[in-house]
Design brief:
three-stranded antiparallel beta sheet; elongated; 2 domains; 156 residues
Length: 156
Amino acid sequence: MAVKSSSGRTIAALTVGVLAGSLFAAGGIAAASSDSDVIHACVRNRSGDVRIVAETTTCRTGERKLSWNENLSQGPADPVKPRVLAADFNFPGGGHKFLYCPDGKTATGGGFLFDELGETGREIIASVPSAGKEDTPNGWLVIARKARGKIYVVCV
């Protein structure tokens, strides 16, 4: 079907151009969404903007090709469950206390809590992780003077 403009000219070429452009776009979408589970993209180096492309597309200057699988892994079947251990300490003069994680567990944090506030002369000298084999933290150490409280360690 031809369309006539106000000047009487047929603008069939415009209609054909729009139709061809639509088919080209649909073909590009089909090429970018193949039966594969892999997604391909071109990523702009400066901005990080992403263009989803077909597997065979060559990225433009200033872009890098990136591909990934749309079926993302679910992570470990058993989620990591941190365990907090606590123990009392009491150093009327001065002392130190180690609190260790169970064998095979790693210390990810720790600390202390004073039992009573306002005592004079209390001092925590150190509250630090303790390292086991191969420098893996396996517990927590508190060194104190004139202090009483609890030491904590978080193990995973």
